[in-house]
Structure formats: C-alpha cells, structure tokens
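Consider the following input, taken from an annotated entry for Ammonium transporter (Litoreibacter meonggei).
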Amino acid sequence: MNGADTAWILVATALVLFMTLPGLALFYGGLVRARNVLSVFMQCFSIACVMSILWLVAGYSIAFGEGNAFWGGLDKAFLNGVTADSLSGTIPEVLFFAFQMTFAIITPALIVGAYVERISYAFIMVFSSLWMLICYAPVAHWIWGGGLLAGAEWSLFEDGVNDFAGGIVVHQTAGIAALILAVFLGPRRKATTPPHNPGMVMIGAAMLWVGWFGFNGGSQLAANGGAAMAITVTHISAAMASITWAAWERVRFGKASLVGMVTGTIAGLASITPASGSVGPMEAMLIGGIAGIMCQELCGVVKNLLKIDDTLDVFAVHGVGGIFGIIMLAVFGHASWTAQLGGLLVVGIWTAVVTAGLVVLVRMILPIRVSEEDEITGLDLASHGERAYELTS
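Applying the prediction step yields:
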C-alpha cells in the first residue's frame, strides 16, 4: 500500500460523491420548474442510496470480479473475501470499491435529466436499479475490468478501448439511456418553461466542476504527475467550453446566458473525461473549444429536429460529449481508431437494447408516467407531499 496514493483516492472518492450530492442535484434542480425541484433532489438522493447498496450486493463483483470476458461473476458479492488489508494496486481494495461506487451512483443519476417533471418515482427506482446492474456494471467490466473491450486475451480489439474516466462507461451509456427513456415517456405537457432558479444551476455546475477533479484525477489511482495532468486538462477543457458556448450563444441569439455558459462547462468536462489521462493542455483546449459549440448545436437537433423532449439535454451534453472525447483520442493518436469506434458501437448497441428492454419490462409492472393531473400539480406535492417554497409562510 502506498500512503500518498491512498490519501489522494480517499479525497477523490469524496469529490466524486460531491458531484452527485449536491452538485448534480442542484444543477438539475435549478433547471426545472419550482413545483418539481424537490422531486429532482429526491430522485438524485434516492439513486445515490440505492446504487450504493446494489454496488455492495453485486455491482462491484460484476464489474471488477475476475469472471470472464462478459462479466466479473459474483465471487466478490457483498465484498466477499475483501478485508481492510486487501490491495488493489497500491491502494486498499475497499477504497477502490468505494471510489468506483461513486461512478455507479452518478451514471444513473445523470439520466435523471431526461425524464424530470413527468416520471413515476417507483419506476425510476426499479429501472435505475436494474439498469446499473445489467447495463452499467457489465460495461465497466468490459473496459475497466479486463473484459471484452479491455485489450486482454479475449478482447474484441487487440489494443483495447482507451477510456480513462468514463467517456463510454459513464457518459455514452447515460446519454443513450436518457434519449431512449425520453422517447418512451413522450414530451412534457409544457416543455418551454424556463429554469426556475439559474443561480442554483450555476452553483450546481460549480460543484460538478470541482468534483470532476476527483472524477478524472482520481482515475489515475495514484498521487503522481498523471493525476496532476488529468486535473489540469480537465480544468482547461471546462473553461474553454464555457467560453465557446457563451460566445456561440452571443452570435446566435445576441446574448450569452448564465445557464448556457455553465452548461458549456459540463460539456467540456464530459468531453475531456475519456481523454484526461492521455492529452496535454493544448489538446484539452481544442477538445473543450469544439465541445462548447458542438454540444450546443446538438441540443437543438434533439429537441427541434428529432422532436425528443430530453428535458435537460443529457444526450446532447453528456452522451455527445463523451463520444466526442473517445473519438478525439484516436484523432490525436492516443488510441486505435478500430478500438475506439468499435467500443462505441458495441456499448451503444448494448445500452440501447438493455435500456429499451428494461423500460418495456418495468412498465408492465409499474406506470412509467404520472397522471396529467399530477404533472400539472407538480411532482413535489403529487409524489412527495412537499413544496420547495412556501411563499405564504
């Protein structure tokens, strides 16, 4: 065990949890109507709790057990055989478990942005649980656990997919799942309402930015120059994407918005995620600069051309950003074109099939959408019996 590596990953684990709670919750919560903000908080918080337990029960074993090319098996279910003295590289294995648990939390939580303001709470809990175990955990095994796409002896691609911190594992899977769920749900009754609290959106985005240092820097799993470079390029990409998103808004609409600028921040962070272990500052600046414009344009394509109400642009920002970062690794010569594109194709098909199948299955048991009356009332009161703002008290 290396004490410095262990100390850094302890901090990184806390930072990644901080991304979901409270960062993502505030970011998404500020974007919805005032009558739905508590429902978003509840969805993010509940997912964090349930995914943590499921990661202990089976998720970690499926993702990082020895198993075979397709899954890790159940030998490490409930952390069987893992003690405080067990090591994963130079850090305690239980710390590696906890660090990866925070990734298993934020990935289904990202999908929340696609279905806010109209989905059944019970459906979310059952769907997210099954999706993490059947979609996310196997994909994590394929790329990070020595499985199907990792370049091991049974890998589909000799070089293996280069996905440092989750362009495919986190962002592509969440983005595609979000798009499919939005299609099944259909649009909101009133889809043009502006964010109820842009200040809350900015605060949430700022927390995500800080937490992302743990997300990318921690993925080095060591306290060294690689972690320092990952943090640096993460910051540069986020800053550049924020600038280009705001500038492009200014060109298109005559004004740059706060919500737009901080959404650009997230686009830059998602895009640099898979590349943060390989690229330098200049490459990061290019990735972020392109992402700020490209992801903004894709938001319009999804909503206006495809007519899909992906409410908070999960696919356009996270899905497209993660896919873009994976491709840019090949563009810059840090990865094989065959492995990168092949990995995107394999995981994309798997995610689409599993997500659609789970939606069909779960909605046979539970309603996927709340009633029209509940949607008008707002999910805070209809689903949870609370209001975020008691203006007369």
